Amino acid sequence: MSVGIISYGAYVPKYRIKIEDIARVWGDDADILKSGLMVNEKAVPDVDEDAATIAVEAARAAVSRSGIDAQRIGAVYTGSESHPYAVKPTSTIVAEATGTTPVLTAADFEFACKAGTAAVQACMGLVSSGMIDLGMAIGADVSQGAPGDALEYTAAAGGVAYIIGNKESELVAVIEDTYSFTTDTPDFWRREGMPYPEHGGRFTGEPGYFKHVTGAAKGLMDKLGTKPEDYDYAVFHQPNGKFPVRVSKKLGFSREQIEPGLVVPRLGNTYSGSCMMGIAATLDQAKPGDRIFATAFGSGAGGDAFSITVTDRIEEIRNNAATVEELLANPIYIDYARYAKHKGKIKVA
Amino acid sequence: MSVPRFWRKQIARYNLVGTRCKKCNEYFYPPRNMCPGCRREGEIEDFKFTGKGEVITFTVIHTAAEGFENQTPYVLGIIKLNEGPSLTSQIICEPEEVKIGMKVKPVFRKLGQAGERGMIYYGTKFVPDLC
Amino acid sequence: MRDVAIIGVKNTNFGEQWDRSFRDVVVEAGVGAVEDAGVVGEKIDSMFVGNMSGGQFVEQEHIGALIADYSGLAKDMHVPSTRVEAACASGGLALRQGIYAVASGIDDIVIAAGAEKMTDVPSPKASSALAAAADREWEGIMGATFPGLYAMIARLHMHKYGTKSEQLAEVAVKNHHNGQFNPIAQYKSPLTVDSVLGSIMVADPLHIFDCSPITDGASAVVLAPADIAHEYTDTPIYVKATAQASDTIALHDRRDITTLDASVAAGKRAYEMAKMEPKDIDLVEVHDCFTIAEICAIEDLGFSKKGEGGIVSMNGETAIGGRIPVNTSGGLKSCGHPVGATGVKQAVEIVEQLRGESGKRQVDGAEIGMTHNVGGSGATAVVHILSRDR
Questions:
Q1: What are A189-205's pLDDT values in tens digits?
Q2: Looking at the complex, does the CB of residue B34 fall below 8 Å from at least one CB of chain C?
Q3: CATH number of B3-128
Q4: Peptide bond into C65 cis (omega under 30)
Q5: Does the beta-carbon distance from B110 to A93 stay under 8 Å?
Q6: Which of A209, B105, C131, C205 holds its CA 20 to 30 A away from the CA of A327?
Q7: Known active-site residue A83
Q8: Are C102 and C226 contacting, i.e. CB atoms less than 8 angstroms apart?
Q9: What CATH number matches the domain at A4-171+329-342, 3.30.1450.10, 1.20.120.350, 3.20.70.20, 3.40.47.10?
Q10: Helix, strand, or coil here: A4?
Q11: pLDDT, tens digit, 9 for 90 and up, residues C198-213
């Protein structure tokens, strides 16, 4: 019996800051940064938005896109590295605000940028085993980057929710298989009580991102006996524009395959929402029968690869919620001072 | 606001659940447990509002209430829900954007927090409904 | 029911009284009123004290007993003393309770006082305490402030009736003009329309000079049965009406956001009780916590048509010498607004005017005056009509 996505919903705050505005504060060259990172601007949360509010907005969009009864959802898992509480689940807030309480299991996930896809895998398992009817997996972040740190140019805000089920008539995309590649590689971390993450600089590249994305992607294609050219689209975790472009080339995917899901230049890195946002943007335009290959990466480190085939039902529900393109359109640009206020970098009272 | 005091009305704040009097068909948000029109004869039941409504009046607050200092200037309005009742809420938009009669829809936002260590309060605010 | 008269009055200075405590100001007002009446302590049957938030402003509840104690009326005489609370209408309500006590025949000599000591806490804390007069669970939690609530009244008044910021400013200018002739006023400096419009915005469209200040102060009156009032004073002032009305605690639940229905209802009840009409009133002290509140009060009490309060204010009809002088004391705006005291202070002002003791701000030939005291954004209104003639 197949398992897959029966609905999805995305949310992006309406504020953006341009790379130029951040570079101006730290005396960096914006043009070099933009071409190096392949990021032009990033999404910034409002003063009253956090990972929980973003998760709720994405989850509500997913529920209303499919029109399902939220009470059918038996699991809510929210992946984030910026959960508003260190202890107290984000997922209970999401469950209450989407009307899925009280008969469900819920927990928060954390695995740097791939906590959301880990939640998708958990839901796949619960659905496939028959333990639950539907499961909701969310990746949402208001990513942190220390002022002046390289991360500040890309750490963005956004979230995506997927509802996982296994009723043929409800599936908009079948997940044929998933494959993970995990080692203990400390390329990025945030200690308890610390406001900003630390990272290993270039150590996040080869031993981190490339090793694990490649490991998971190759592993899945070997397992399924598929090749890059069997897929219409490909999505890779997007900490910047450069990494997914390079890894896709290395694996044998074309620029055309990754382009529809490459949202990072206008969005920034939404961490737990990053790869999932790319998949959502791809689902927004994929046709029935199209195949999507996706690999998320989380520092620490691991890769989760997915092989997905879109069904006829996508056409029926696609327009019932905002597309990623609609969420990215017409942003409000703010300067660094207002960005600092929105991100709580200015302490008031 | 204390944790139990907030939690008690959490569903109302998260999901715009108010009440309705079955007797006179009047809707209440914030929720009321006694119909002011029918009083003891009224029959109250829960009712979930769509959250669609319009701005009746508004202000742009420059001198914040305690706990809202990081948000100024913020737009506060009275919103009349399509089902009838009116409520007070922040309207998430630029100060120049808000107008009397503007259509709005609900969003899920942080309402506040009990300091750095305390509970974070979530609930419903409103944004312009451009559709 | 017996007729009631006011036989003694006293306001303390209003303002920032850094060197004086809550009990200092309230005792000064009480003693002053008793002296003015020529009453000895042993004659006092009971006390009613309006106080909004001793708990938040000075972390002191049980205000009634405290005041009786520090007035020397507790230890030996055990005079009953009751604290009355209705937010900013606490003072008006204390006066009303005192009138009840005398009118009922149970008590003869009664002190009605009001007091607030607001500057012992920082301004944000004071604003937060005042915000408790609105609906904490459904207004305050959303970031509503008192200026914000009245700003929403002002916005809609402008939208519906074409009221202008200049008209609001004119209210502040007029009240500051009157305040400079009031020795107890917090602000004795005149304002101009431009200086009001040029002051910082607190809650659009209300500027800081559209708002009443944070004030320390106390006021007291001595009440007696009308039949024996002349034993104490040559100029007793008679209570012709006492009226009170309630409305929804939250502004968003009102029938009409630009009308304080509680003011309308209390006004009507007062006119009926006194068998009078608006045209019979020579002057009125209204609750101008914000300039828009004075404009609404003028309309709601029948001194102008609905929507014309701004016009009436602009063309001088509410100035001293105008058709209906409003807030000769300087109002809450210029005289100051120690919230629990305000309702009693309004009565003191009217009594002094009717006695002809108001100096440069005297309304010539004043015979009948009204007070109008509001709690919250209009959930409580208290109206009194006072007269030289019984």
A1: 999 999 999 998 889 99
A2: no
A3: 2.40.50.840
A4: no
A5: no
A6: A209
A7: no
A8: no
A9: 3.40.47.10
A10: strand
A11: 999 999 999 999 999 9
